Amino acid sequence: MRHHLILRVITKLLVGTIFLFALYVQFHGDYSPGGGFQAGVIMAVGFIIYGLVFKLEKAKAVFPPWLVHKIVALGVLVYAGTGVYSLLVGYTFLDYAAIDPHSPVHGQHLGILIVELGVGITVTGVMVAIYYAFAAHAPNLKDEDW
Amino acid sequence: MASSVSLSEPIHHVALSLADQLPILQIIIPFITAPLIVFLGVRQLAWPLAFLASVLCVVTSSLLLKQVIDGSEISYQLGGWAPPLGIEYRVDAVNAFVLLLISGIASVVLFWARLGLKAEVPERSHALFYALFLLCLTGLMGVVITGDAFNVFVFLEISSLSTYVLIAQGCHQDKRAFTASYNYLIMGTIGATFFVIGIGFLYMATGTLNMADLADRIALQHDNRTIQAAFAFIVVGMGLKAAIYPLHLWMPNAYTFAPSPVVAFLSGTATKMALYVLLRFMFTVFQPAFLEEVPLIEAIILPFAIVAMFASSISAFAQRDLKRMLAHSSVAQLGYMMLGIGLFSHTGLTATVIHLFNHGITKAALFLGVGCYVFVVGGASYEKLKGLGKTMPWTSAAMVIAGLSLVGVPGTAGFVSKWILVQAAFEQGWWIFAFLIVLSSILAVAYVWRMIEALYLASPAEGAMSQEVPFLMLLPLWALALSTLYFGLFTDITLGAAKAAASGLMSGSSGMF
Amino acid sequence: MVEFFTSDFVLGRLNYWFFIFLMMTGLYIVIARSNLVKKIVGLNIFQTSVFMLYISIGKVSGGTAPIFPIDMNIDPNVVYSNPLPHVLILTAIVVGIATTSLGLALMVRIRESYHTIEEHEIAEQEQEIMRKELGLAKEGEV
Questions:
Q1: Is the bond into C69 cis (omega within 30 degrees of 0)?
Q2: Rounded to whole angstroms, how far apart are CA atoms C35 and C58?
């Protein structure tokens, strides 16, 4: 990959922007189109493009597979944990009003934000995990094959 | 969203106690434990956590059953959105009974798996295996507990996707597990998608997804062709999942190559869950009055039930592998359950529901026994089983008991359900069906005899070393085997629940059952 | 003939015709192709047809995006499209992705162990395995 100077430079520039855009989509998801699913995929694309251009090993060094596994589980735990919290304080499961009983609307707002964060984390993890799983099985492409 | 009141004033809220939360706890306990196992990533913790979760599920489902045994219903609103708009969990007597069956079999199988799983799945996959097992459990119980038609699909896919992976775990024994799992994935996805199409048509025609609400609105428009098409899609889709006779092709391979604890769990719960959904949609959502108008029962269910009873029994007899034989016999036994539906009477449905339960525990016992044999001799072909009756007396005795229940020998659980089925046939004056049931039972004797022959009458292969499995693996096997005897002798619980279920179904109550 | 094609039965229900066409295309590919990748592609087309059916039934003629104004002053004259089918299908799409990736992953493993992804070749190999098993069993009996 040493020859592809343009690809490497552009990727380095792009990856940061992609992450930033993912965060934008993530945290504006409740007001504008977007949310956890989209943000998670965009975030994962950042890692995937990095892995495509600078070999899989480099991407794995940044985001090791064991961490991917934990991230996948963590997101689900954040989501379900929100529900369990509302359950423990005496509301029904995932009743966001439980987060701020004095102002249910604020509670809803916060609840959606947290839940979407959980979704985003899991989707990032799952997408990267799928990429790792398939890329690790593919034969390595040589520079001449491009 | 419509409650604009909530914008200004805080709503008065009555705090719910933990007892009110039982319906969601039933689902959320395994659902949270599964990612927790992955998150912790400690192999030694995986089994204890999984087992704890399944035992807690048994506890919650028994508490739920205790609450609803008098015929009352529990409705639980998710996220505080009231049905029919919000998703609702609904529990009644039969519902809780099926939950108890599923969680009970899950914990028995998990107990067995602590020692037994090592023989079939390498230890490095154990943590993920248990996580998937719990996800599968979540899905199966979710399908049963939910009162929302689309939610059924979501939980169905949770259980199916984890099932595909669990079946593929058999690759460590035989690479054909991959193709078995792949075929199941294709068939299962087509089935689930058919189900979604059906739900979509229902939504187009009625504008609701809540089951009780659907039942009310369908009752007003029986001759609507959209609803009739929806019915066809739902029956075929769920039929694929339940492996009803012509749609069963994925099942023998999937059950043969999956690891034994997975098969024991699935055979006891997964097809039963699909059949339960089928019953619920046919009788609760669409109502018996609708069934009388469409030619489903006499044109499709009855003939295929009879064909299943014979064709699958014969192919079970022809097998040379115990696991494969049991898989084929499952299709045949599903034929009895379909026959019960086909008779379209109170007694017939009682037979279906009670056979659903009895066959669940019988098959779970048989497949756990197969797992014990695989643990010791590394396979379950009759060739390998030769003479194991002498070297593994306890496992084989339990297998014989469960095998007798599969045949339907008096004193076992299998007898009770077949007896009621025969009664139902006589009640309708269709003695020919009663005759056919007895005839197919003779076929069952034949295929169970092949197992007993290999175990007890054949001499062991020379130089074969085999000994009894550890006590902790025998315990769950015997628990299931003895329960087939118990439910064969004391039928109050099962028969009572089945009768209550059948009367609920036939009356088409707008409740769950 | 022209009248038939511009009639309500065809033009008025165009979304259903597309749905049926896509669905049958997908199912045909799943059944008729022996290549495992193509089967998954067929499955995807089949599922997508259902997504399109759902999304098209959420359309209310003259309806706008179902977003309430922030002050919750809802104009009763404004017609909103039905957002529920979209939400349902969002779930179904996620399920579809999971199914596809799982199917592809299984396929990768099938290729690693069978060295082919053609269904009939796999079936041949499996029959070969079967025959070997039976042959062994027969020898054992003797």
A1: no
A2: 35
Closest CA to C52 of A119, B211, B154, B193: B193
CB B358 within 8 A of CB B459: no
Q: Could you give the CA distance from residue C11 to residue C4 in angstroms, rounded to a whole number?
A: 9
The answer to whether the Cβ–Cβ distance between B10 and A102 falls below 8 Å is yes
- Residue B455 is assigned to a structural domain of this protein: yes
B312 within 8 A of B335, measured Cβ to Cβ: yes
- Tokens at residue B314, please? 């014969």
Strand pairing category for B74-77 and B88-91: antiparallel
Cβ distance B28 to A77 less than 8 Å, yes or no, reads no
Cβ <8 Å between C105 and A133: yes
Domain boundaries, position B369: 295-513
Contacts of residue B346, defined as CB under 8 A and 6 or more positions apart, other chains included, come to B499, B502, B503, B506
Domains of chain C as residue ranges with CATH? 2-67+74-141 (1.10.287.3510)
Report how far residue B111's alpha carbon sits from residue B117's, in angstroms, rounded to the nearest whole number: 10
When scoring C34, C51, C99 by the number of chain B Cβ atoms within 10 A, the one with the most, hence best to mutate, is C99
Give the chains touching A; criterion: ≥3 Cβ pairs < 8 Å.
B, C
Give residue B491's pLDDT band: very low, low, confident or very high (50, 70, 90). Answer: confident
| Interface probe with C: pick from B174, B185, B226, most Cβ of C within 10 Å | B185
Domain total in chain B? 1
CB within 8 Å of A79: residues ≥ 6 apart = A115, A118, A119, A122
- Tell me if chain B has a CB within 8 Å of the CB of A114: no
Distance from CA of C118 to the nearest CA of B (A): 11
Q: Is the pLDDT of residue B162 over 50?
A: yes
Q: Which residues of A fall within a CB distance of 8 Å from C112?
A: 137
Q: Which residue has the higher pLDDT, B340 or C67?
A: B340
In this complex, the chains that touch B, judged by 3 or more CB pairs closer than 8 A, are A, C
Structure tokens at B175: 């690479």
Q: What are the pLDDT digits (tens) for A105-138?
A: 888 888 888 999 999 999 999 999 999 988 887 6
The 3 state secondary structure assigned to B420-451 is HHHHHHHHCCCHHHHHHHHHHHHHHHHHHHHH
Query: Which residue range forms the structural domain that includes residue A69?
Result: 5-145
Count of the separate structural domains present in chain A: 1
Q: Is C142 helix (H, G, I), strand (E, B) or coil?
A: coil
Write out the two tokens for B360: 């669940």
| Whole-number Å distance between alpha carbons of B385 and B391 | 10
**SS3 call for C8:** coil
How much is the pLDDT for C142?
36
Residue type, B1: M
Which residues touch B40 (CB under 8 Å, ≥6 apart)?
Answer: B49
**Contacts with B303 (C-beta within 8 Å, 6 or more apart), sequence order:** none
Q: Whose CA is closest to B369, among B276, B480, B483?
A: B480
* Chain A CB contacts of C90 below 8 Å: 37
Residue B361 confidence (pLDDT) above 70 = yes
Complex prediction ipTM: 0.91
**Position B258 in a domain:** no
For B7, the closest chain A residue by CA position comes to: A105
Alpha carbon A144 to chain centroid, angstroms? 33
Query: pLDDT tens across B33-77, in order?
Result: 999 999 998 888 999 999 999 999 999 999 998 888 777 788 888
Cα–Cα distance measured from residue B341 to residue B505, given in angstroms and rounded to the nearest whole number: 11
Q: Is residue B69 part of a domain?
A: no
Measured CA to CA in angstroms, residue B384 lies from A113, B323, B380, C40 at distances of: 58, 12, 6, 37
pLDDT band with cut points at 50, 70 and 90 for residue B109: very high
Residues 6 or more apart in contact with residue A85 via CB below 8 angstroms: A98, A99
